[in-house]
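Morning run. Coffee first, then this:
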Amino acid sequence: MIPLSILDLCPIPQGATASDALRNSLDLAQHAESWGYNRYWLAEHHNMPGIASAATAVVIGYIAGGTKTIRVGSGGIMLPNHSPLVIAEQFGTLASLYPGRIDLGLGRAPGTDMPTARALRRDMVSTADNFPQDVQQLISYFEEAAPGQEIRAVPGAGLRVPIWLLGSSLFSAQLAAMLGRPFAFASHFAPADMMAALHLYRSRFKPSRQLDRPYAMVGLNAIVAETDAEAQHHFTSLQQSFTNLRRGRPGQVPPPIDDIDAFWSPAEKASAAMTLLVSTVGSPETVERALLKFIDVTQADEIIVTAHIYDHAARLRSFELLAGVHSRLAARESTSDLEKTASSKAGGVTA
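And here it is:
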């Protein structure tokens, strides 16, 4: 069974604080480690009242320091907001503290609105147009420093921190293929180009020192509860958050509501349905069927799941139930492989 990972935005529920959200994230990461999740990634967003992961490298250090084996990384660092050297030093430091466990996923969007982007960049010298050059410069800082090299990342040089390219369109798919890097597609909020981006990445991939063949991770909203109705109830928090963002009123994660149709207009409902198309919401049985279909359609090498749930206990339970679904599928696949092997050794005859 392909690996399953978590993308966490450190959601701040209504009435809570960023401190609460960060402690909730560490609690989830520690549980995720025990449940067998492969990675735990944090995302960079700014000036968002409902997201506490703005200082992403700091949060990664907090999560990595509170766990033991799970990989921790960025999903992602919005590179146009930063100097490549600063990111190399930050992630070189993280990789030095937690060797073999740090991932660096890079995006080219600002992760915020334009006024905030201007406040982050100040002089606006670094923009998305420089992204390919900035990525290559960042990669170079993780190589062994050459004799006499004037500028180097300390820590960072020689560590070769794994770099991923993240995207919600075709641009980063092409760049990831050209540079021979793993690729993660944000289909959990931008499903339209998912299949085209995966095809482009796989068809144009060029092997590199980091990776000899394409490796694609695909995003999925997954909310799991004991029943379909309970899961749909929790899903209304994400539906409200998305709609409030589109209304220009981003806020903390709202509690779920009983009648979502009374909350939005038909046009808002259609917009949310289109944007959140790549979502699986329901009981373990419902989610298992959807997960198998999603894997079959995308042929993903890994799935990264996010769950925007108001109640922390319900969020934990959702990821626990999903881990159980994943374990059952893995066991079933292992049994199938053993049966195929036994059948082959017996000349194709099965009992």
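The longest strand covers residues 216-224. Good start to the day.
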